[in-house]
Amino acid sequence: MNLSTKPPRSSVSEPLKSRSNSRRPSLSDEKDVLVLQIKNLQTEVASLKREDIETPKAITADLEELGREFSRQINDFKIKLQKAEQDNARLEGLVARLESQVKRYKTQTEAAEATEDSVKAEKRKLQRELRKAQDEIGELQTVNDHLQKRFDKLKSKRKDDT
Q: Where is this region: Disordered (predicted)?
């Protein structure tokens, strides 16, 4: 804001142009122009001073409103941050619980796989023993049939001999 009493360049150049156009302007005409310029500048300065006085009030009110809005936003963000931290803590607890479950299930799975392997080995062993026993049963039945035939033969021979 320029409060100097110098008239603007355009205002000063107007009297000079008029001076060049009319060979000798009267001193009173030039004085009237300058007085008019001074009045215009004084009015402009007064207007600027009034705006300066009114502007701080308006700016202060705007700044206060902005401050309240920013405070409201800050409080909202603080609440959101607290909720996010609570959710984060809850989720961390959930993750810890799930990780312990995973470890427990993994241990159980490993134990079940070891048991499964031993059960499969036992099953193979029992199946071998079963086949072996069935083979022996088959052989014994064959022997039994053979012996039964011999016995029947001997029995029939004895009957014939009696």
A: 1-29
For residue 106, give both structure tokens: 């993994």
Residue located via tokens 């810890």: 96
CA–CA gap between residue 48 and residue 13 (Å, rounded): 24
Q: Determine the Cα–Cα distance for residues 136 and 143; give it in Å rounded to an integer.
A: 10
Identify the DSSP state of 5: S
Rounded to the nearest angstrom, the gap between the alpha carbon of residue 103 and the centroid of all alpha carbons in its chain is 27
pLDDT-above-90 percentage for the chain: 57
What whole-number distance in Å separates Cα of residue 135 and Cα of residue 129?
Answer: 10
Cα(111)–Cα(101) distance, rounded to whole angstroms? 15
DSSP state letter for 6: P
Q: How confident is the model at residue 84 (pLDDT cuts 50, 70, 90)?
A: very high
CB 30 within 8 A of CB 15: yes
